[in-house]
Amino acid sequence: MEREDSLQIDKLLLSSLECPACSKLFMPPVYQCFNGHSICKTCSETKATCPECSLPLQNKFRNIALERMLESIEVVCSFKGCGKRLVLSQKRTHEQVCTFNPNIPCIFDECQWAGECLIDHITLVHQVKQFEMASSGSVRGWNSKTWRMADWGYSIWKFADDVIINKSFCSGDTFYLHLYDMGIRRRTLRLTTVNPEYQVDFFVKSEPIQYFKNKYTALPFHISIKIAEKYILESADELEEGYKRLSIRVEILGDQ
Ligand SMILES: [Zn+2]
Ligand SMILES: [Zn+2]
Ligand SMILES: [Zn+2]
Ligand SMILES: [Zn+2]
């Protein structure tokens, strides 16, 4: 009951709590023109005149009453399944990182796309490769000549029920592998080196893809290149001269 009340307040107030210039929900600080029309901080800096009465905006004032209101209204996150209660001024910030937000922003920095079908988008638009993975584990290889500077970018591992986006690169003396899953659950993956002389299991947790653009990423799976060169990187018959391959068997173990 309480929660429905909040939702109704939310709907009623939303229209009057949006900036008339950009239609985004106000967040403190809120400014107003000499006539008292409110405008958001960004628009107050980019517009010369008030969008409602055309008074010049060089004389603008803070709207403290509205700012206090934004801090005192409690709403519920709009995304199905979340249920998190927030003060209105935190709603937008929360919804950007909410793991129930079905609109996932594209993982490529230069791309502004956001939507529900990230896998289709990055496959079609950014030509990210998909690999079919067996539930018993599939072996993936990383080939490079210059291991210390290599960047393999993104690829998609498609398991029977799970999709993992991974990003791999080397920086300095370390090989990094980020694992992102499309759901709200974090998965545990077993990564096993396949060189028989140095076979090791690593248990790695994936992160929800929603965390990606918000830089809330934990330290990814990583191994020292020095150690990898000594024990794990292999030459392979089909590789060009000078290339070495790191091979890892990847298997999803299940929920956290
Ligand atoms: Zn605005
Ligand atoms: Zn005005
Ligand atoms: Zn939420
Ligand atoms: Zn994109």
TrEMBL record:
One of its GO terms (molecular function) is ubiquitin protein ligase activity. Signal peptide: none annotated. The keyword Metal-binding applies. Residues 19-53 form the E3 ubiquitin-protein ligase Sina-like RING finger domain. Keywords: Metal-binding, Zinc, Zinc-finger. GO terms for cellular component: cytoplasm. InterPro entries: E3_ubiquitin-ligase_SINA, Sina-like_RING, Znf_RING/FYVE/PHD. Coiled coil: none annotated. This is E3 ubiquitin-protein ligase Sina-like RING finger domain-containing protein. It comes from Blepharisma stoltei.
